[in-house]
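Quick note —
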Amino acid sequence: MKNYKNERAEARKKAKELVSKMTLMEKASQLKYDASPVERLGVPTYNYWNEALHGVARAGVATMFPQAIGMAAAFDEDAMQKVGDIIATEGRAKYNEYSKHHDRDIYKGLTFWSPNVNIFRDPRWGRGHETYGEDPYLTSRLGVRFVEGLQGEGPVMKAAACAKHFAVHSGPEAIRHEFDAKATKKDMWETYLPAFEALVTEADVESVMGAYNRTNGEPCCGHKYLMEDVLRDKWQFDGHYVSDCWAIRDFHENHKITKNARESAALALKRGCDVNCGNTYLHLMAAVEEGLISEEEITLAAERLFTTRYLLGLFDGSEYDDIPYEVVECKEHLEAAVDMARKGSVLLKNDGVLPLDKSKLKTIGVVGPNANSRAALIGNYHGTASRYITVLEGIQDEVGDEVRVLYSEGCHLSKDKVENLAWNQDRISEAVITAEHSDVVVLCVGLDETLEGEEGDTGNSDASGDKRDLHLPKVQEELSRKTYHCGSYGRKRH
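Predicted structure written out below.
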């Protein structure tokens, strides 16, 4: 692990000096996720919001790794550190070039709001695939190594990681803005807090993000026990704290623990929330005027944020400034992504069918809504790959002209039909025909980010990204039954 104690002391000294030259208004403007420039002091605009759960996200092309839950299935700590290092390398390369072009937009900074170390207790939770699973120990180990890879070992922090969402945040998505998660001290310390503790005390993670929900009555972005007693006092956290996006607004609109935006901003700041993802901190000046907070409290938050920026070498320069853009999606990084995908693949059952012998096959049927779907490949919080290879394309490439490949979509991902004017299950007869004319069938079913993910990001608005149960969509279940009964194995069994 790299401990930035000595470097932090120097960075904090520089931050204090810089912030001391700012007006109150200028200091308050630095506490937004999209921090304003202070041109007279040579401070450019900076956007703290960036994502990197499984590769640099939402800012164009980058090497994409498997979703977090898939990487966790590898149980490989060294590989996770390598993933973090590759992400930081590409993040630096992109930041270097974007800065040359004066592009300091969202998703283009070096403060990555990753990893997600929440505990995946309920398999229906739509964001579970962002996590490392249900086990606090495994989550801790993988999270620590990911952070160490992301932040690096040098005197300058390569990129800043963020432990999220603090704490007891594991769904349900539909009511997360008003939900009060009840947890005993035993459950808190055995299940929900170990990963956060490890990332803070072992990996020296630079930031922590609060959750939307309340925990035991207090909102997580204004929680005395979690933010003051545990994080700052017990664990001696020295980095900065960031709210989840528009979570502070929930204080008065949904949790009803404050009366208005000024009181919400004041409560969050007093508890130690340094940067607001959202717009509630636009009310900080009004809160000062009303005597709800002091200038000193704003100053402290600004100093913490500039400490991070100095640790990243954003004012003094660093060895990372020379990382070329050509490392983005380079051969070495792509090979690492493929290696991680292989390590995380789990074969649950094999009755002697695999591996397939091409010499004994004339026709392979590839069936299902995810067989030729790019959406099924990308997960959420994703960047852009320059090339996508679907299951269908992979099989076609592998067998070449030696084996005929038949394809059928089979059904829509979740709707009753593919074509609006058609009968229900308008692709299922084609799937059956494909199966009947094939020696083996590869069935590709499941969900994608349009059905499973974060509230507000998915198309299943009634479930808000969560799954109602652990069943496949009904159309996919019917497809599975129909194609299964087509084969000789199915006929023998039934």
